[in-house]
Amino acid sequence: MIADHSTKSTVSIDATKAKKIWIHCNSCFEHYVNEKTVIFLLACQHVICEKCVTASLGRIPGDAPTYVCPICQKMVRGRQVNNALPSNLKGMFHPAPWHDGLPHDLIDSFQRANFKNLEKFILKKEKEEQKLDKDLLLARGVCQKQYLEQHRLRRMLRELKFRVRKISQQVKIKKRKLAQSRRAQRSISVSAKKAEKQITKHSLPEVKSMPITSFVHHNNYSFDL
């Protein structure tokens, strides 16, 4: 049993499957133990799934199909990886070829190449995951800044709305006072006109001026009276 300590939960893998975990499609890295697709061993020593390989029928009925390897682009023969593989091909996937006297140098080379390929893929995915983590932290920081900025803008908007209401009320009060002042001025003007009319109506008649008769001055005579 294998435990995955990268997460809080423990993932158990059957020991038999654990020995075959390295068998994967060299193109899309789908694992054989997942049993989600058919895996082929090609004559070019590449392991490819049915989704990644291009198959062509044989020239005559009953002839084995040929495959175009997506890794080396060669046209080769291939066999499905399962228990029906011929022993010389099935031995390539033997978990301990030296125990059964198989040519383990060739088998080790084949398996080591697949292990190395899988390790590169895992390393690539780990780097991508690290980059995604950094991008996530950056995005989280940007979102937090935007949230704070939006909060500040909402607060400013509330303050501006309050000021607008306050100014509107002040304008209404000033308009009301101005209207009252105008009404008072009109009332005073009307009252003044009425008073002027009344004064004009009750004023004394104009007295015509009479001519004044003056003395006539003669030459000055000197005598005693």
UniProtKB/TrEMBL annotation:
Q: What is this protein called?
A: RING finger protein vilya
Species of origin: Drosophila arizonae (Fruit fly)
Q: Any idea where the RING-type domain is?
A: 25-73
- What's the encoding gene here? LOC108619913
Keyword Membrane on entry:
no
Is-annotated flag, keyword Zinc?
Answer: yes
Q: Which domain of life is it from?
A: Eukaryota
Q: List UniProt keywords, sorted A-Z.
A: Meiosis, Metal-binding, Zinc, Zinc-finger
Pfam families from the entry? zf-RING_5
The record ties this protein, via InterPro entries, to: Zip3/RNF212-like, Znf_RING, Znf_RING/FYVE/PHD, Znf_RING_CS
